[in-house]
Specification:
The structure is a single chain. This protein has 387 residues and is an alpha+beta fold. It contains eight helices and 19 strands. The strands form three sheets. It has a 15-stranded antiparallel β-sheet that branches. A two-stranded parallel ribbon has the order 2-3. The protein has a two-stranded antiparallel sheet with strand order 18-19. Helix 5 packs antiparallel against helix 6 (308-331). It starts with a strand and ends in a 5-residue tail after the last helix.
Length: 387
């Protein structure tokens, strides 16, 4: 796990220690302003796309006739994105209300995928997102609400929320996916590093399958970094069908279990050789003011040039502007609502409805929905900052 370790200089360490001295164990960190040197130079809305970096693993899954094999492939796809981590202990920008990130991917076979993320709530922070690949018959929608806690020598980011994956050509089949928690270790003493921990589930109730995966954290004296252990089972009976093991940042393996007898381990996913498909993002000068890369561009440029004072100033400007906008909304009794998502049945759903069964028609609908530059929310447009 050396690529996720970081040794801080004395000045950054002393700044962190000054902040930490004011905290108590279990304290919510959401309102604590962290120094910019712990920032990863991109928004959380963009970071979510890491989970979608290996679409080749699921491109043909909708054509697989065996429901169990489809489930095995969905689990592999889910586990494949976690190896993409910044060096050291870094935290992405907290998106501001109304911020959005959009991009697309083009694959070797000519098919395309599209992503849209929007910050739909500030307190609590909620990021809603949608990933569409109509030519390969699947969509992925969900929301994440990270909640940070101080745990002594560690800080935890609890990733609350879930993702729903659907195959457009298999009506009624849906996969519900939860997320592990992220731990920043060594913030008081020792080497700082990131770990994933705790258990997650992937469920497909229609086919009676469930996968429980434990992201194992390293013990003080025993264990290894980034290990996982999981089982794929029939949910109604608890019968184990597959076991999964290995390392989420390196190689994972799978073996079949039949009538209690375990087969041989076979390769499941190898992060060291798998291709990460690059995102296609519009140039910043063609983005709207509240698109992630444009909104945070001055902070990012300052971080990349290691000008921490300037990065702090630019970040403060964005945050102060958000407080000013919120105050104006309250004073003028203006309701804010998301541009791309709507709250329905206890969750945020894309406003795009009735996607065509024809992949090419669906693709045009999705492109028009995501990349339209028409801002339809009057209060959102009125309260945009000028840059």
């Amino acid at each position: 796990m050396s690529e996720h370790k970081e040794v801080l200089d004395e000045e950054p360490r002393s700044i962190l220690m000054g902040i930490i001295s004011q905290l108590s164990r279990g304290m919510d960190l959401s309102r604590v302003t962290l120094p910019v040197f712990v920032l990863e130079p991109r928004s959380f809305l963009e970071k979510i796309t890491d989970f979608m970096s290996h679409p080749d693993l699921i491109q043909k899954t909708s054509l697989e006739a065996d429901p169990l094999e489809r489930f095995v492939q969905v689990v592999r796809y889910y586990l494949s994105g976690w190896h993409i981590q910044p060096k050291g202990v870094k935290k992405p920008y907290n998106p501001v209300l109304g911020e959005h990130f959009r991009c697309k991917w083009t694959f070797p076979d000519g098919t395309e995928a599209f992503y849209l993320g929007e910050q739909v709530s500030h307190h609590p922070p909620i990021s809603a997102y949608a990933f569409y690949c109509p030519e390969n018959n699947f969509t992925l929608t969900g929301e994440l609400s990270p909640k940070s806690k101080f745990l002594g020598n560690s800080a935890a980011s609890m990733l609350q929320g879930s993702t729903n994956l659907r195959f457009l050509n298999i009506p009624g089949e849906e996969y519900s996916i939860t997320y592990p928690n992220i731990y920043a270790r060594g913030i008081l003493f020792g080497t700082m590093m990131m770990e994933l921990g705790d258990s997650v589930t992937v469920r497909c109730p229609q086919n009676d399958f469930i996968c429980d995966v434990e992201f194992k954290t390293k013990g003080f004296f025993t264990g290894t970094y980034n290990a996982i252990a999981g089982t794929i089972k029939k949910e109604s009976t608890g019968e184990v069908l597959f076991e999964i093991g290995g390392n989420w940042s390196d190689k994972m393996e799978i073996r079949q279990v039949q009538n209690g007898r375990k087969g041989s381990w076979t390769p499941y996913f190898d992060a060291t050789v798998s291709e990460v498909y690059p995102k296609i993002v519009a140039p910043e000068d063609q983005q709207e003011q509240y698109e992630s890369r444009r909104l945070w561009s001055k902070v990012t440029n300052a971080l990349m040039s290691r000008n921490m004072d300037l990065a702090t100033d630019e970040k403060t400007l964005i945050e102060d502007n958000q407080r000013k906008i919120a105050k104006e909304r309250d004073e003028n009794d203006i309701d804010w609502s998301p541009r791309f998502f709507t709250y329905k049945n206890g969750e945020y759903c894309p406003k795009l409805n009735n996607i065509s069964a024809d992949p090419q028609v669906a693709k045009k609908q999705i492109e028009e929905f995501i990349f339209s530059h028409q801002e339809t929310n009057a209060s959102y447009q009125e309260l945009h900052p000028t840059q």
